[in-house]
Specification:
The complex is a heterodimer of chains A (410) and B (411). Chain A is 78% helix and 0% strand. Chain A is mainly alpha-helical. In chain B, helix 8 packs across helix 10 and helix 17 crosses helix 18. The chains are: A mainly alpha (410), B alpha+beta (411). Chains A and B meet through helix 5, helix 6, helix 12 and helix 16 of A and strand 10, helix 3, helix 5, helix 6 and helix 8 of B.
Chain lengths: 410, 411
């Protein structure tokens, strides 16, 4: 009996888990590690809160997909005016391009840990990713990359072995501490941006649409979303604890990949660098293939182009052109000489955090549309929370922009 | 001839030009008309929206002019059989039958035919998008349209939140391969609508080309009786592939509902791995006893209720042991030989064969190497299980173009 009731839940695990753990990619590691190294446990409370935000946002996206049977860009095009659609898609496009760049930056950083020049590694990876996605079945490759990126789980062990002051950890978790210092604010927005990246919502929604999940089976999907959020939240928290315990006391800022890797030393010793580089490479390659594809699908679906990676150039020129262009652009930007890798990674997620409100407000309008959602619209409490998130994120973004602009004139 | 986006939000005037409101949407009655007629307007005046019947419409192009100065302010409510052009058609997807693809409606073309304003086509050009994106004053400067006639598109009833009777007659004009491509590219719900509209045979041919996961979802979502009927019509190999992706319990239920003979064929194939020779082989072939003559063999073929297609050869087996293969006689030889010739005299012996566990690719290579049209599949005891034809093998050798979906999950 037990088995029978448990089974559907386990079967539903997958998209939500994958989507949420995708948040722990190159940019995620850099952001959490920077937060730990620069502010100790001072941003831990935010991370926990943002994970709750993540659940609410992911849940709404999955529910949109289940009830309407449509992907996000589909819904946006069909429910918003064309100009609003253009604005929403443009913000998603910019956010995604940023992340694509960050994945190639991640590849560059991993390669340099192995002593390989980024000018060699990045172009080769770009070509490989392109070939893998267009010329073979991506399925098994995806699995290899995912296994590689599990290397980041070692942060959990590293966090324990670093013997953190657990009382300080608890204190950082339960005592919110909001500082208007630009560095702190920047990292706060970056933490939000990397934890709640638009592509994770796009993915969560499209995967339930693809599977044709019905509202009756929605509880399994929600379970998947919960597990995914908890998993990604736990990993993120331990990355922060590990770096806060090892790097913060020594005042080592995470400005290189090697510095981030050194937080793994209590756990992996001399192998810390290798382990970190493998994880970084796996996570970055995975996302470097998936993100350009997801972005291209998003655009072609909204604009009505012929689509599919199995189409030829003649059949789907715009689709293939966009996909190729995104990879080339991402790789090229990551190769700009003298690019400070870790700062770029964090910067990308600051941008993501700044653009997030646009997406959040779009989701909120869709999910509260009775003609679209029927009785599955948000309840009042849930709606209050969701609106609160959107407004808080907007205010933080606004504050960051104001601080930055003020900083220029000082 | 005018376009929807040039009239929405334009003023609605009474008989003598007085302002009544603005056009919020255009209501169209879907039904048997080739070009669906406009049945009314949704008019907005401040915060109120109300319905204005098409009977009152004197002019619609540019701005709407009514034949009366007073309108009944009945609030607008959605009714079955009616779609809103702006809300349910503009910016939505439909199928372009002649173009064999899914398109998005960037504008809707309207005109007056037989005393009524009607929908005559949809504009799918990128220029239409640019026209709507920029300021209205610039819209006229952008040239170029790509209008698909309304009779050449398939509107998807699941798009509108009301009960609709939509004709799916024209879908039958599409080749199953094209239908399959469309079914794969649409969302699950839309693809279920398409498949539901097809007859069992076309549905089966279409599903044979659709990705396995989508087929499994579709079969699971439809009535079990119909799912079983469609599975019976599918090639046993494709049916087995689909069943394998289903929940075991559901697969069992579907097999139980199928005709015993077809179910047995599928079940036999399920014994073998996906992409093995056993999975792609057909058990539908003609055996003749080694004692038969060419005339007997031809008579046997003619007497069959269902003749295998393609029919390439007959397989000669031991008289008392019909699963032991002696050789084969090509159809060409059968036709050219005298009827009284014993089949053993004209049969080819020492044939290359494959085992059911062999990869399907191996079977394809054997066919290519020996210039064969079919290769027999024998088990360890040399029992004849089936044959792999060139048709089946070709699907393996060609890159799996439409099976591969890469990142479809991200759409």
């Amino acid at each position: 009996m037990m088995r029978k009731r448990l089974w559907p839940y386990l079967l539903a695990l997958g998209p939500g888990l994958l989507a949420a753990s995708a948040g722990n990619d190159a940019g995620g590691i850099a952001t959490y590690a920077s937060a730990g190294a620069s502010y100790g446990y001072g941003l831990l409370w935010a991370l926990v809160l943002v994970s709750l935000f993540l659940y609410i946002v992911q849940e709404m996206s999955a529910r949109l997909g289940v009830v309407t049977g449509k992907g996000f860009s589909d819904l946006v095009r069909e429910s918003f005016s064309l100009r609003q659609t253009a604005l929403i898609l443009l913000s998603l496009l910019i956010a995604n391009i940023g992340i694509i760049v960050s994945e190639f930056v991640g590849i560059a950083a991993a390669a340099e840990l192995f002593g390989v020049s980024r000018y060699v590694a990045v172009p080769i990876s770009a070509v490989c990713v392109w070939l893998l996605v267009t010329r073979s079945s991506y399925g098994w490759v995806e699995k290899v990359f995912m296994v590689l990126s599990l290397a980041f789980l070692t942060y959990v062990g590293a966090a324990f072995l670093a013997r953190p002051d657990w009382r300080a950890v608890l204190d950082g978790t339960v005592h919110p501490h909001l500082s208007m210092e630009p560095g702190y604010l920047t990292l706060l927005v970056a933490v939000i941006g990397t934890t709640i990246s638009p592509y994770m919502q796009l993915y969560a929604q499209s995967s339930v649409v693809e599977k044709g999940v019905t509202p009756e089976d929605y509880r399994y999907t929600r379970f998947d979303v919960i597990v995914g959020t908890v998993f990604s939240g736990v990993v993120a928290v331990f990355i922060l604890i590990a770096t806060a315990a090892t790097l913060f006391p020594k005042h080592v800022a995470v400005d290189t990949a090697a510095a981030a890797a050194s937080a793994l030393e209590p756990f992996a010793g001399h192998y810390a660098k290798v382990l970190f580089a493998l994880g970084l490479l796996g996570a970055s390659l995975l996302a470097a293939g998936v993100l350009p594809l997801a972005t291209t699908y998003m655009l072609s679906e909204a604009l009505g182009f012929e689509r599919g990676v199995s189409r030829s150039w003649e059949e789907a020129p715009i689709f293939m052109g966009t996909f190729t262009g995104l990879i080339v652009l991402g790789a090229a930007l990551a190769l700009i000489p003298g690019l400070p890798l870790i700062q770029v990674l964090v910067g990308v997620y600051v941008l993501n955090g700044l653009l997030l409100p646009v997406e959040l407000f779009a989701i909120l309008r869709l999910i509260n549309d009775r003609e679209l959602m029927g009785k599955h619209v948000n309840g009042p409490v849930y709606n209050f929370l969701a609106w609160a998130i959107a407004i808080v994120v907007s205010l933080l973004s606004l504050a960051l922009i104001v601080m930055t602009v003020v900083g220029w004139f000082r | 001839m005018f376009f929807l986006t040039s009239i929405v939000d334009r003023p609605v005037e009474g008989k003598s030009g007085e302002a009544i409101g603005r056009i919020a949407d255009v209501i169209v009655r879907m039904g048997d008309d080739r070009y669906p007629p406009i049945s009314g307007l949704v008019v907005r005046d401040g915060r109120r929206t109300f319905f204005v019947s098409a009977n009152l419409l004197q002019k619609l192009n540019g701005s709407a002019r009514l034949s009366s100065s007073t309108v009944d302010l009945q609030p607008f409510a959605r009714r079955a059989g009616e779609v809103l052009l702006r809300r349910d058609v503009l910016d939505h997807q439909l199928i372009d039958i002649t173009g064999r693809r899914i398109v998005r409606v960037n504008d809707v073309q309207l005109t007056r035919i037989e005393g009524a304003y009607r929908v005559v086509g949809v504009d799918i050009s990128p220029q239409a998008l640019l026209r709507r994106l920029g300021p209205r004053a610039f819209a006229g400067r952008i040239v170029g349209r790509q209008v698909v006639d309304w009779t050449d598109v398939q509107y998807l009833a699941s798009t509108a939140p009301v009960q609709l009777k939509v004709s799916y007659d024209r879908l039958a004009e599409l080749h199953p391969v094209d239908l399959a491509r469309i079914v794969d590219a649409l969302s699950y719900r839309e693809s279920a609508e398409i498949v539901a509209a097809l007859d069992e045979e076309t549905a089966a041919e279409t599903l044979e080309e659709v990705s396995d996961e989508r087929v499994a979802d579709l079969l699971e979502g439809m009535d079990q009786e119909r799912a079983a009927d469609i599975l019976e019509e599918m090639a046993p190999g494709a049916a087995a592939d689909a069943l394998e992706d289903l929940d075991e319990e559901v697969a069992e239920q579907l097999l139980a509902r199928m005709e015993p003979e077809e179910a047995a064929d599928v079940q036999a194939l399920l014994e073998y791995d996906e992409d093995s020779a056993g999975r792609i082989m057909t058990t539908d072939f003609v055996r003749v006893s080694a004692t038969a003559t060419v005339g007997d063999a031809l008579a046997l073929i003619r007497s069959l209720e269902e003749v295998p297609d393609p029919l390439l050869a007959v397989y000669v087996v031991e008289p008392d042991e019909p699963s032991i293969l002696r050789g084969l006689v090509r159809l060409r030889t059968l036709i050219l030989s005298a009827p009284e010739t014993p089949v053993t005299e004209v049969m080819d012996e020492d044939l290359p064969t494959v085992a059911p566990e062999d990869p399907a690719e191996n079977a394809a290579h054997v066919l290519a190497e020996y210039n064969l049209l079919a290769v027999p599949v024998l088990d360890e005891e040399r029992h004849l299980l089936g044959i792999v034809t060139v048709d089946d093998a070709l699907a393996v050798l060609l890159p799996e173009i439409w099976r591969r979906r890469g990142g479809r999950a991200f759409a």
